[in-house]
Amino acid sequence: MCDGASVVTAGWAQVVLSIPSPSTNIWHIGVFPLRAYALCIIAGIIVAMIIARRRWQARGGTADSMEMMVVVGVPFGIVGARLYHVITDYQLYFGPGRHPLNALKIWEGGLGVWGAIAFGVLGGYLVARRRRIAFPAVLDAIAPAILVAQAIGRLGNWFNQELFGRPTTLPWALEIAPQYRPPGYEQFATFHPTFLYEMLWNLAAAALLVWLDRRFRLGHGKVFALYVLLYTAGRFWIEALRIDTVNEIGGFRLNNYTSLIGFIVALVWLIWLVRNRPGREEVVEGIGLPAVESVAEQDISETASTDDAVATDNSSDSESAAETSTKDPTATT
Description:
With 333 residues, the protein is mainly alpha-helical. Helix content is 64%, strand content 5%.
């Protein structure tokens, strides 16, 4: 009896201390479905845009330029995120019994952060190039903002009860409803809340980037390189906890390889920047325009010099005429 009571008490304590999952991930306003996943993504984008705009203005840029890069970069990023997910998890959409059109249902979840970053950066670069903006400075400005957006977006996984980790009985374990438990794990009720791990990791990394940037006045892409370093380091160990079905190579999840490669590339890039690009950019917008302004200023200076010369000549002529008039005895007084 005592042992049975202990088991019941332990089980009750586990449930009380665990993190509950939301009972629903969609609400309806009339016939319009409001999905929690989409709301989290939108909220992350809005917050990131506010942070990025303020950081960009602090660097000497204009709000208009940052807003334009966001307007172009966000759609690019969403497309890239979905493409990466579909390509790396193609078995979910193509093959016997699958429906390829489901690949278009982005509201059901499935965005690859690597594709989002790559395509989002491409969209921002196109705007920056057209507007003569120092793009490495843009990357430094948006790096902490991206981490905050990723942190907020992870709440969507919580609402969808997806992408959680291995079973655990830790006090912060995440409760998962039976219908969302993967095959082979039906008997477990609580799992590692990997969404929470990544959320906290990203927020801490964002705060660290802001501090490092203020402390050392980083520039030329160093903040962004640090972002990639920190994010891939965290993603590597968090990815190792997850149990959702993904493609593996040699027993390791594909995203583990991506994280490792990204970490190495970012580390090499950061070392090169520290050695070859010290300090930060003094001018972040209108790259190439100062030369034009200098030419204009030179033309104005030359014009002013010419006017001065003409004025001097006229003055000399007047003085000569006055001297002549003084010497002429027939001059009228």
